[in-house]
Amino acid sequence: MVDDMRFNYSDLTPDLIMDALDLSGLRLDSGLIELNSYENRVYQFQDEDRRRYVVKFYRPGRWSRAQILEEHEFATRLAEAEIPVAAPLAFAGETLLDHQGYPFAIWQSVGGRQFEVDNLDQLEWVGRFLGRIHQIGASKPFHHRVRLDVESMLHEPRQLLASGEWLPSGLAKQFFGVLDELIKHVSDAMTLDVAQISLHGDCHPGNILWRDGPMFVDLDDCRSGPAIQDLWMMLSGERHEQQIQLDTLLAGYEEFIEFDSRELALIEPLRAMRIVHYMAWLARRWEDPAFPRHFPWFNTDHYWRQQIATLHDQLEALKAPPLSLMPGW
Known about the structure:
The longest helix is centred in the middle third of the chain and has 21 residues, at 169-189. This protein has 9 helices and 10 strands. By secondary structure, the protein is of the alpha+beta class. Helix 5 runs parallel beside helix 9 (301-319). It has a 5-stranded antiparallel sheet, covered by helices on one side.
């Protein structure tokens, strides 16, 4: 298994990419356009029939073959149910190809503009499709994909950050002090016994394109977890604004599946987990030259002082009453 902390894509050359695409039988009629992706390497191209495609080379060592195939199977099931989700194409019956140690997959390119999270009509539409996605996700659990839990999202990141030299020595004590307090609050909250279903997992507005309606893309982080994980990242602004957004989302969502209102208490714990996991993700990928180039501020005093302030703010959010459903919901 490749050590994905040290892997850096240095040998993923244009010639290797072209040879890999030849395995699919597609013939390029354009150059490769690199798309924004740090975890994997993603390129858009056009074939000789002027059809546009996207190829993704998965970071070796991050997911097992079984986990990637389960991602593909989930996307395919959703697409077959006429849910607008980008699903990988099959070549000779296989959605996951491999070339010189690189697992890769190909999708038809889907265009669209940014989903407007402050557009309540669009938000309700997204809620309907998330309800359908969760209806299918609840019917068949993942067996290979990871679970959204405190161990992988908080304890492992803490261990990684403590074992490296990313934090300035003068800030480490303060940082880990507030982090440990946050971990305790989140750990207590995440003992709530709610259903664990198959999720998109990273359903932020940037992973929803808008054409004649929503198009859900990038299931690379699909996993098992509570339904609220695919909803809370749609909420932004002041508390009253989030309340309106939540009610709008759920108006569409509950046309297809019931929402367990107890999960509202998990919004801030899940946000805290995402904040900490992101810091550790940058540390884990620091050996990849793309990361120091794109995130040069990561190992600076200013960045870590900001993170200490962010963790303090998140602790206050964890102590505040959670959002609630409107009366009569």
